[in-house]
Q: What sequence folds into this?
């Protein structure tokens, strides 16, 4: 699914390149707590191209889900998004809006959430209401975001359930979530998310709770639907093997910061950041079954005890004393549209 990386598109007057659907710039998200403000996302930058798939990968606690929930304004009341951050999104009508200043309960964000940006959650049982049928919930979402009547919304729901591969969709539409298996619920969740024809789909570890066979089916399904509908996707996972199958570009995240970005094939073949290389070494390979897996040493620090300098230096075997533990490395272009935040590259 990897696409050829082309030259950068020209920047428009609204600040967004022609081929870009979403651009997040210097995103900072913190949470109020009894111990003070806890930084969960610390200056993240990433973008999603039209029709492309961005994979955001990293360990649990890296800030992957917080970044995208900030985009959807689904964070708890204790969350604070720095007003200087930028989340520029191109609406279906071509307008570019900055999502940061939009209120989490405003009519504007309710129109964006679900209609312009849809989300597939890791556990569909937590996404569907247990007291309403799947069909009721789909029809409500369709009528909220599309100008259709009850009968047309019902037909759209049936068609989408059929497209995601659910057998006998006229039966499934009247079932409650608990009457379906895990794989069926995940397909229904995908159908619900796509029934509003959103330009952008956020998939937050959508296959983690599924067995390997169903996981492969769901990945194939999402790729097929993306091609048919022409939408863009943000795919969040901690599994580099999954990312290699679905993403055009990868953003590697660690402790709230993006440490490396680039096209999938070149990044996996020639990872630059020590953290990215560590993640790749932990993937089992069929051609080297005798090789022992090498986990990334140590544990990700608590956001309450964020290290000074490069966030990864406490676990990095290539750290430079007096540099990595003093200042955060700036972004360095390393060719082929790739960027790495590491003092091992660039001047000096």
A:
């Amino acid at each position: 699914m990897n696409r050829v990386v082309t030259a950068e598109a020209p920047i428009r007057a609204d600040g967004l390149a022609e081929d870009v659907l979403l651009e997040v710039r210097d995103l900072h998200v913190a949470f109020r707590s009894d111990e003070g403000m806890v930084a969960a996302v610390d200056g993240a930058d990433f973008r999603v191209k039209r029709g492309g798939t961005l994979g955001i990968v990293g360990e649990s606690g890296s800030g992957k889900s917080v970044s995208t929930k900030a985009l959807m304004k689904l964070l708890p009341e204790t969350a604070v998004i720095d007003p200087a951050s930028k989340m520029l999104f191109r609406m279906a009508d071509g307008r570019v809006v900055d999502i940061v200043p939009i209120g989490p309960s405003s009519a504007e964000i309710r129109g964006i959430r679900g209609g312009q940006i849809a989300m597939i959650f890791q556990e569909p049982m937590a996404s569907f209401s247990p007291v309403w049928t799947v069909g009721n919930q789909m029809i409500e979402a369709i009528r909220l975001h599309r100008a259709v009547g009850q009968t047309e919304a019902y037909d759209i729901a049936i068609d989408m359930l059929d497209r995601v591969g659910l057998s006998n969709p006229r039966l499934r539409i009247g079932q409650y979530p608990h009457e379906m298996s895990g794989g069926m619920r995940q397909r229904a969740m995908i159908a619900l998310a796509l029934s509003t024809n959103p330009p952008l789909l956020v998939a937050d570890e959508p296959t983690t709770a599924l067995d390997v066979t169903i996981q492969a089916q769901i990945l194939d399904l999402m790729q097929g639907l993306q091609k048919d509908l022409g939408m863009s996707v943000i795919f969040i996972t901690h599994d580099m093997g999954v990312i290699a199958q679905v993403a055009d570009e990868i953003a590697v995240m660690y402790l709230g910061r993006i440490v490396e970005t680039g096209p999938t094939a070149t990044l996996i073949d020639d990872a630059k950041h020590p953290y990215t290389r560590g993640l790749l070494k932990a993937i089992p390979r069929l051609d080297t079954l005798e090789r022992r897996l090498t986990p990334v040493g140590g544990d990700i620090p608590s956001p309450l005890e964020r290290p000074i300098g490069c966030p990864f230096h406490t676990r990095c075997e290539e750290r430079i004393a007096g540099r990595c533990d003093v200042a955060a490395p700036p972004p360095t272009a390393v060719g082929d549209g790739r960027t790495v935040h590491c003092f091992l590259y660039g001047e000096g």
